[in-house]
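Supplementary Note 3. Input sequence used for the single-chain structure prediction.
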Amino acid sequence: MLYSSAHKFIYSQLPRSGSTSTAISLRRYCGPPRWVQDTPSCPEVVSEQGVIGQIQRRGPAFVRSRFFVHMPLAEIKQEIGPAIWDSCEILSNIRNPFSRVVSLYNVRIKQGHSPQPADVDDARAELEQSLEIEAFAAHTHMMMHIDGTFAIDTAFPNETLDEALDTWAHAKGLRDFPQDQPRRQVNTNNVAGRPAEDLLTETVRSQILEHFGWFFDLFGYSRNVSDAHLPPAQHAPAQASVAS
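The predicted structure, written as discrete structure tokens, is reproduced below.
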């Protein structure tokens, strides 16, 4: 998570939505003067300028900080305090859930939690057996709601991320916002890197539609897996604006 005291925003870092590259771009407004950290890993930094949440690979010596990546909104509000919370614009990335599930599978391969697939059938079987889609959806809900109420003010679609961030930064008056966003992670496995429609079985698709139904409805994403690469519909949720 990120908080900028000068620019009055809080960024909720939704996993598998391009949030790492977005966070790297936004950190410059949340840390001490001349503080630079342009790599994904980052310690917790709390200063007069704001808060930069901890991003650190878990291991035997891992100790979670007060503020951290993928922090549920209710915890952010509790730790940051209601006065600061109420004064800020709450930001998040969004992405079609079909694509997010494939991205989650890819990161599991990268971290060694899932084996490298030999072919598409291997990938489909692993996606059916290993991914806990209901838990993934529940965590997504916590990243966007407080006590059941949607709490995001502005959402940046992953599918048009560079344009969405540029539009928001211009409206915010951030003249030094980076023109070239950090390169997002690309999977080099020829099987796992295939489109969602090639990898997701009907069983997995049904689970995604069941548990992420609220997300499809809220942001206007297509429920057709072949459209997983497309941005959401150009209507905004009642509670939020979708940057375009």
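Residues 2-242 form one domain. The first helix runs from residue 19 to 26.
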